[in-house]
Amino acid sequence: MSYTTPIRDMMFVMTELAGLDTVADLAGYADVTRETTQAILEEGAKFCGEVLAPLNVTGDRNPSQWHDGEVNASPGFKEAFAQFVEGGWQGLMHPAEYGGQDLPKLLAAPCLEMLKSANLSFATCPSLTDGAIEALLLAGSAAQRAQYLPKLISGEWTGTMNLTEPQAGSDLAMLRARAEPAEDGAYRIFGTKIFITWGEHDMAPNIVHLVLARTPDAPAGVKGISLFLVPKFLPNADGSPGARNDVQCVSIEHKLGLKASPTAVLQFGDAGGATGFLIGEENRGLEYMFVMMNAARFAVGMQGIAIAERAYQKAAAYARERVQSRPVDGSSDGPVPIIRHPDVKRMLATMRALTESARALAYVAASHFDLARRHPDESLRARHGAIYDYLVPIVKGWSTELSLEVTSLGVQVHGGMGFIEETGAAQYYRDARILPIYEGTTAIQANDLIGRKTVRDGGAVARQMLARIDDTLAELKARAAADSNPAFTAMHRHLLAGRMAMENAIDFMLRHVKSDPNAAFAGGVPYLKLSGIVLCGWQMARALLTSATREAEDPSFYGAKIATAHFYATHILPQTSAFEASIVSARGNEGVLALDDAQF
Amino acid sequence: MSYTTPIRDMMFVMTELAGLDTVADLAGYADVTRETTQAILEEGAKFCGEVLAPLNVTGDRNPSQWHDGEVNASPGFKEAFAQFVEGGWQGLMHPAEYGGQDLPKLLAAPCLEMLKSANLSFATCPSLTDGAIEALLLAGSAAQRAQYLPKLISGEWTGTMNLTEPQAGSDLAMLRARAEPAEDGAYRIFGTKIFITWGEHDMAPNIVHLVLARTPDAPAGVKGISLFLVPKFLPNADGSPGARNDVQCVSIEHKLGLKASPTAVLQFGDAGGATGFLIGEENRGLEYMFVMMNAARFAVGMQGIAIAERAYQKAAAYARERVQSRPVDGSSDGPVPIIRHPDVKRMLATMRALTESARALAYVAASHFDLARRHPDESLRARHGAIYDYLVPIVKGWSTELSLEVTSLGVQVHGGMGFIEETGAAQYYRDARILPIYEGTTAIQANDLIGRKTVRDGGAVARQMLARIDDTLAELKARAAADSNPAFTAMHRHLLAGRMAMENAIDFMLRHVKSDPNAAFAGGVPYLKLSGIVLCGWQMARALLTSATREAEDPSFYGAKIATAHFYATHILPQTSAFEASIVSARGNEGVLALDDAQF
């Protein structure tokens, strides 16, 4: 098997760190017992391991193909997608009202993760459909919901998000696509959209494009953008796909990775205008998009974790098999599996520590989302919602940045074989490279973290996180006094140092964002990474405390957790001081900003 | 022009940091004036920019092709190679006695760099020829030198290095290729060699393979390996290529990058034995190889710097062109070139600081090489030789590791366009990934740095480097007291902290390498990176001092140097504390080594 779902660790995180039992107590989640959860993960793992994982390399070697406006998905994808629909996976966390299973995000998170680990190119398709579903749930009319949601939630039809244009990437203010009102109450859509994931394909009989465009009298900039639904085939009265709409896929991109996932250039309106239906109100498109984006960004963060997990599994398997060189401690006269060499262990431990800690933070975020939706206490709902919103740019930014390091180490563990495409490690390195870019680059996440998530509430939520870390630090200190395991002392020392660095960074942002915005935003990505390392380290500290208590129950699993947490403390957490130095030194336009444009 | 040789910075490093004038005073280098040096760089830059650089993307899109045992180089490569030979570039630093130009390594270094920046796949071919030349100069018989060196040094014939076999990569003790003595005084060579760069091609009429193999009675392990010369065509009496030798290219690899550079599987002896000629003495092959390897490893370090430079140039050019989003400081109402956004500046400054500092350290190492060869004082020759040997694993390991970060940032600066192959940024990201692997992985470099370069002399050379850094720190301190530029204070503070971390790491290695080798070697790569950051930072400190003195002569150039050094101090040097923590915490088998093989 090229991928084995890490169900044991997923269950550990869900139950011990992310409060599965608390989530199960929320209204409507009574079925979410540990047993059902385990059963769902096992069923998903079977599908992912047996059906999707083997197609991952197939898709890389046989990318989706464009031909005369049509796109054929990679071999085997159409059949696998039919099984995906059949299994009801698309509806996992969507409302039962429209045919979904209405499960909490905390349970959807590991399911998302395993899909993405098994086959990231494949998994981007249902992710985009999730985005379209969220948009319709948020702002669609009752008729739109009734017409489209059952088809999308069943997975029968797929969805896309059409934001980017050649001149408008991170900057949606520059968007030019036009929407002209027509006499039938619909709109005629004109324009070119690029980077449209699964924008055209043959896995589903219809594709529902969500498109940002401007109406004729819209204000300039981001306040004049509306959201439209543009189906590839206009539905007949009976719901079946009818007339072909005026949207054409003119090409797909030749990419570094994710080659099975077609990235389309879509041309709207070349034959008189594509028929589009306004979603919600005019000029509120960007607002709807931002709500959806939190879901999409969380999902991309999960992609980073998922690809890191798969790269780790492959590297660990190779390191156990490949025999080369005698051990430096003289414990064998002959060559040994390379996993016994200290540097290989260091690389694998780095991959593992980064991946597990990011998984923990992401699942914890998912549980805040569930509590924000369904907690009986309104003020607690708001509080959990604020924490989730705060964590989203960190989960997106940090989990995808670390996936670059993990997939790179995955190649390195393979030595020269890692550079040969047939080995497979290189695919993860290539695939991962888009993750810190799409759905908002790491800098865009950092801007969000600074502006909307740290400064807007005066640092209130950020400081709440520090207070929670302090609780864990107190537990660590008590435990370190009573227990000879040096992991507690090490974790206490390095988490404390990291937390202090994070507080200094928060204070820096609050003090300077207005008075010296260049300095603040020059430190944005370091601030995001610092926050990611500390918050993930906090999860590792929590894992350490729990695991030490339970070690006797399963010495190998909990022992590995303890060792990984210890490694995280001594190898990952110390990086925070460098980020703090970067942030603080940007003050006064030193360093980063001193070079003028022409000097580069 | 897709690549512009950074002649100004090269000349700055050569003259101000690496002592070009001192090198020119050595015997035989009287012609190496600043003027000739500049003229040679300009001529090289013309060839690299106009001929080689445009073929870089051609080669990536049209890899070398294998067909029935023959390999056709990518389109245009054969013609470019003819121009390379015509220009005499292969002989740059080789002896005049065999037709070379006998220039110092300090001058060869920038020439190597520009070749590799312009077209890394192309440049690997002459690099391997350099290796074959070094081997023959070191251990070839007078007859072998007379027969092969003029052909290799002119560039007419090319060379290869045949070390790796499927079961013997980093571990050459496992090598199995056989060499049987024949009655004609030659040997018959049998075996399979893999990963042979430019092992077969059509750019030259003959290829001289240097092959490691075992004679029948050789001792087991690395002490029973001999070095053989196996020409593709056995030379006729008149020196022209004669009978085809029994070595066949059975395939070439499908790789992540460096696609124009054919990586061959060579089969020796399937038709009765390839004719090989012993170089030097039997069983001393690995010893010769190690001498050569210092040259090859330096050259691969230059590859890291070269690809980083090219990725930087491309990213800076894009950032100046691409218009997107308003500046955070409100200095414009409309969108601006992205180079004006603080995070883009941070990324470009990181790319630039890493690249320039690594260039400086590599050229300084080259000048130690020249002094080690030709200084009139024997004890100083030895001293410079020891410093060069110490610096080689750092130049190789650190310059290639940083090339991963720089090429990755190069993609990130391009946003979504970076993931599209046609943009070109992705090629550098792919090409660079082999650099920390071939010619010895970073862990192998770290083992060399610890074992042969730090511990063997009891830390003498490593501590000499600290003493030199202390001299620079004293200068910085004096300057900081007299000058209001905060760069001096910042550099003093962070270089001092880095230097202390480096000293602790050296002491750790000396104390633990024997008593706890696992702990020492688990900290090997962090020790190498820490040393790289500090030693490169030291060069930036020296550049800062010189540039501040000369600023008035060329305010833009020296001002940029000062700002880059300042950035290095506050953004790169602070990383050393995390590496120190990693190294020291490996003691007592904590962290890295606590997980047993089965727990991964």
From TrEMBL, chains A, B:
Residues 467-586 form the Acetyl-CoA dehydrogenase-like C-terminal domain. One of its GO terms (molecular function) is flavin adenine dinucleotide binding. Keywords: FAD, Flavoprotein, Oxidoreductase. InterPro entries: Acyl-CoA_dh-like_C_dom (IPR025878), Acyl-CoA_Oxase/DH_mid-dom (IPR006091), Acyl-CoA_Oxase/DH_mid-dom_sf (IPR046373), AcylCo_DH-like_C (IPR036250), AcylCo_DH/oxidase_C (IPR009075), AcylCoA_DH/ox_N (IPR013786), AcylCoA_DH/ox_N_sf (IPR037069), AcylCoA_DH/oxidase_NM_dom_sf (IPR009100). The keyword Flavoprotein applies. Pfam families: Acyl-CoA_dh_1, Acyl-CoA_dh_C, Acyl-CoA_dh_M, Acyl-CoA_dh_N. Its EC number is 1.3.99.41. Residues 35-156 form the Acyl-CoA dehydrogenase/oxidase N-terminal domain. Residues 161-270 form the Acyl-CoA oxidase/dehydrogenase middle domain. Its cofactor is FAD. The keyword Oxidoreductase applies. Residues 283-449 form the Acyl-CoA dehydrogenase/oxidase C-terminal domain. It catalyses: 3-(methylsulfanyl)propanoyl-CoA + oxidized [electron-transfer flavoprotein] + H(+) = 3-(methylsulfanyl)acryloyl-CoA + reduced [electron-transfer flavoprotein]. Gene3D superfamilies: Acyl-CoA dehydrogenase/oxidase, N-terminal domain (1.10.540.10), Butyryl-CoA Dehydrogenase, subunit A, domain 2 (2.40.110.10), Butyryl-CoA Dehydrogenase, subunit A, domain 3 (1.20.140.10). Involved in the assimilation of dimethylsulphoniopropionate (DMSP), an important compound in the fixation of carbon in marine phytoplankton, by mediating the conversion of 3-(methylthio)propanoyl-CoA (MMPA-CoA) to 3-(methylthio)acryloyl-CoA (MTA-CoA). PANTHER family: ACYL-COA DEHYDROGENASE (PTHR42803), BROAD-SPECIFICITY LINEAR ACYL-COA DEHYDROGENASE FADE5 (PTHR42803:SF1). Belongs to the acyl-CoA dehydrogenase family. This is 3-methylmercaptopropionyl-CoA dehydrogenase. It comes from Paraburkholderia acidiphila.
